[in-house]
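Quick entry, no commentary yet.
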Amino acid sequence: MGCTNGTRLLLPLFFTVLILALNLIESAGQIDSPSASLPDTNSRNESQPMRQSDNTVRVDPLDNFNKYRGGFDITNKHYWSSVIFTGIYGYTIGLLWLLCGILYGGYLLATAYCCKRNGKSKAKSLCHKQCYLWPILLAVIFTILAIVASGLALGGTARFHSEAKTVMDIIIRTANEASETIYNTTGAMKEMRDNLGETDGTGEASSFLTSTSERLDVEAANIARQARKNSRLIDRGLKIVFIVTIVTISLNLVAVIVLSVIGILRRRRALYWLIAICWCLTVLCWLFFGIYYFLEKFSGDTCTAFENFQENPNNNSLSSILPCDELLSAQPVLSDVSAGIYNLVNEVNSNISQQQITYPNLGYVCNPFSAPPEYVYQPDNCPANTIRIADIPKILAVFTCSDANNGTCLISTSQYQTVEAYTSSIQNLLNVYPNMESLVECQSVKDAFSEILRKNCKPWKRSAHMAWAAMVFLSITMVVLVLMWTVQARHDQ
C-alpha cells in the first residue's frame, strides 16, 4: 500500500507541474510579444518607420498591476519591477514546487507518526524485486539528462555574463574616454590661464578660462560618476546572480549524481535526505529560470534602446548610462572657444597688416576656423603662404632680441615669451578640439552603442535565451528525477 499511495500522490503532482510549466512558458512568449504589449505599433510606424518598437509596456506589480509605460529607464523602480515580473512563470512554478514539497513532507511525517502510534507494520510489495530494474534504468537516464542540462545551463549563464561584462566594459571605457577628453581640454585652458597670469594677461580672459574649465571639470566628473555608478550597480547584480547560479548548478550536479548512487545502493536514510536537498535545489532551478527569463527581456530592452538612440540621440532613456545631454550642454562652451580663437587670430592678422610696411615678408596667421556663425574647425585648409599657430614662435624667434635693444627689434624677449606661452596653450586646445567636437556631438557615445549593437547584442540575447531554456530543461528533468526516487523510496519502504 505504501508504494501505491505514494504513486497516486506523486504522479498527479508530476503531471501538474509539467503541464503548468509548459503552459506558462508558452504564455510567456504571447504576453511579452510586441503585438501583445503594443497593439498600436502600426500607427506609430507610420510616423516613425525606422524606430524600433518599445517592448517595455508590461505589468507593474508596484503600481497595482497596471501597465508600465515609462520606457527603458534603469533608474526607475517601476521599470525594474515590470521587467523582473516577466519571470513570474519561473517564480510561480518554483513556489508551487516548494509548497508541494512541504505538503508531501507533512504527509510523510503524519503517516509515519500514525503508523508508529498504531504499531502497524508495513507489508512490502509483492513486485519488490521485479519492479526494481525499470525505475533504476529510468533514474540513470534522467541523471544523464540532468548532467547534460547542467552543462548547458553552465555554458549559457557563463556566456551571458561574459557578454554582459563586455557591454559594461565598453560603456565604462566610453565614459572614461569622454571624461579624459574634457579633462585634456580643461588642462589646456588652465595652462593658458596660468600663462596669462604669469605674463600680466587681461583679467577678463583669465576669468573666462577659469569659469569655463571649472564648469567642464564638473561635467566630466558627473559623466564618469553617473556611468560608473549605474553600470557597476548592474554589473554587481549580474555577478551575484552568476555566482549563485554557478554554485547552485554545481551543487545540483553533485547532488544528482550522489542521489543516483545512493538510490541504487538503497541507503534509505541518506536517500531521504538527498531527495529533500534535490527538491530544494529544483526550487532554485525554477527561480533561476524566471531570473534569466527577465534578464533576456532586459538585454532586449537595452539593445532596442541602443538602436533607437542611433536614430534619435536626443533620446533620454539612456542618459543614466551615458549622459549625452551632459555632453550636449558643453556645446556653448565649445562655440565660445571657437569664436575666441577665431577673433584672436583676426586681431593678430590685423596687427601683422600694420607691420608689413616695415617687414613685407611677414606672413599672416592661418585661422583654423571658418567665419561665423558656423566656426567650423578646418586646420587643413590653410593657404600655403600662411603661418600655423604652432609655428608662430619659430617665426618670431628671428625677430626677437633682448629688452635692452627694443628699438631695433620687432618684439622683446618678454613679449616673445608671452606669445610663445599663449600660442602653445592655444595649440594644446586645438589638439584636443576634434575629440571635444566629436564628444559634444555624442559621436563617441554613438560609436560605443554601434559597437555593442554590431558585436554584442545578438550573442547577449542569444545566450540569455539559452540560459533560461537550459534552466527549464534542467528543472523539468529534476522534477522527474526527484519524483522517481521519491516513488522508489516509498516503494522500498
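second:
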Amino acid sequence: MHLNPAPAPTTSVTSSLKLPSPAALPPSSSMTTKYKGPWIVQLGGDTAQRGIHTKRRPPQTALGHYKPLLPVVVTCANEEDAKALNRLNKTVFNIVSTEDNHSLIYKCANSPVTDLRIVGSPVYAFRVAVETGVWIGPNIF
C-alpha cells in the first residue's frame, strides 16, 4: 500500500518590500570565514548594481563585445582587494562624470584607495568575451 501525505496548507503574503538579492549584499563577517571567493566588484554603471557581489557577477552586465567604458566588472581572489576596489565607487565613480574617461582614469590611478596588494598576482583583462572584465589573483578562473 502506498500512502501520499496530504499537502501542507499554503498561505500567500504580498509585500511591497523588495529585498536585495543575496549576491548583491556585501559579505558579512560570518561569511568571510567560510566563503573562499571569488568576490566580484562592479565599478560605475547602474548604481543599484554597484558594489561587491559574491558567487556570481551582476546579471546582464558587461557581456560579449562590450564597448562602453562603464561599468567595469572586476573579479578578485581575495576580499580585501574587493573592498578596496569598491571604495572607488564612492571616491571616484560617484564624483566624476561617466563621460569623462580621462578624469576617471586619472582619479583611479591617483587614488589612495587603489593601493592594492596585487603585486605578483596575475591580472587578466578581457574586452571581448562572454563575460568581459578584469580578473585579479591566482586561480581566479
